[in-house]
Amino acid sequence: MAFGALLVVLTFALEEGKVVFMIGDENMPLVPAIVMIVIGAVLMGSSLMRPGEKVNAAVSDLALEHDSKAVALNKRLEGMGWGLFLVMLGGFALVPESTIPRGVWSIGVGLIMLGLNLARYYYKLKLSGFTTFLGVMSLFGGIAQLAGWQALDNALLFFVLGAYLLLKPWFDKHQVFGKIA
C-alpha cells in the first residue's frame, strides 16, 4: 500500500513521462499504484483481523471445523507474505534495472515465498504448494538471470515442475502440502 502511495506521489512530483506503465500505446502510470493500494489494503485488513471475528457465515463455519488459532495464524502469515511480495513488485517497478539487476528482484521474491513456507513449517502448519513452486521458480530464475543464463528460463520451469511431479507421491504421503482452511 505504501509503495502504491509512493508511486502516486512520484507520478505527480516527477515531470511527465518519467513514471511509465504502458497499456497498449497509452501511458497509464496510476494503474499499478491503484492496484497496489487496493491489494495492500485488503491484505492488511485481512491480516489484522482477530481470530474471533466473523468474516462471513461460510468462513466462520470453516473456522469452527479447524483449529481457529492455526487458521488465523496462517491467514496472518499469508497476508504478510503477499504484502512483502507486493513491496518487492513495487520496488521492481520503481528502481531502474541499471541500478539493481533483474535477478536480484526474482531472488528476493523467491526468498519471500520460501520464507512464508518456512514460517508455516516452523508453526507446524501445512505448506502451500503454490507459494513453494513460486518461490523455487523465482529463486532459480533469479540466479539464472544473474549468471547470464537467459536461455535456461523455460528449461528451469520444466525442471522444477518435473521435480515436483517426481516428488509428489512423497509430498502426498507425508502430507507436506495442503490447506488449513
Question: If you had to describe this structure to a student in words, what would you say it looks like?
Answer:
The structure is a single chain. By secondary structure, the protein is mainly α. It contains seven helices and two strands. The protein has helices at residues 2-13, 30-47, 57-65, 68-94, 102-122, 129-147, 153-173, and strands spanning 22-23, 26-27. It has a two-stranded antiparallel sheet. The longest helix has 27 residues, at 68-94. The two termini are 26 Å apart. The mean pLDDT is 74.
Produce a short descriptive summary.
The protein is built from seven helices and two strands.
Q: Which term fits the overall shape?
A: flat
- Structural class given helices, strands, pairing? mainly alpha
Largest sheet: 2 strands, antiparallel
Kindly report the average pLDDT value.
Answer: 74
| Helix content percent band | over 70%
Task: Give the arrangement of secondary structure elements.
Blueprint (H helix, E strand, L loop, with lengths): L1 H12 L8 E2 L2 E2 L2 H18 L9 H9 L2 H27 L7 H21 L6 H19 L5 H21 L8
Antiparallel strand pairs: 1-2
Helix pairs in contact: 1-2, 1-4, 2-4, 4-5, 5-6, 6-7
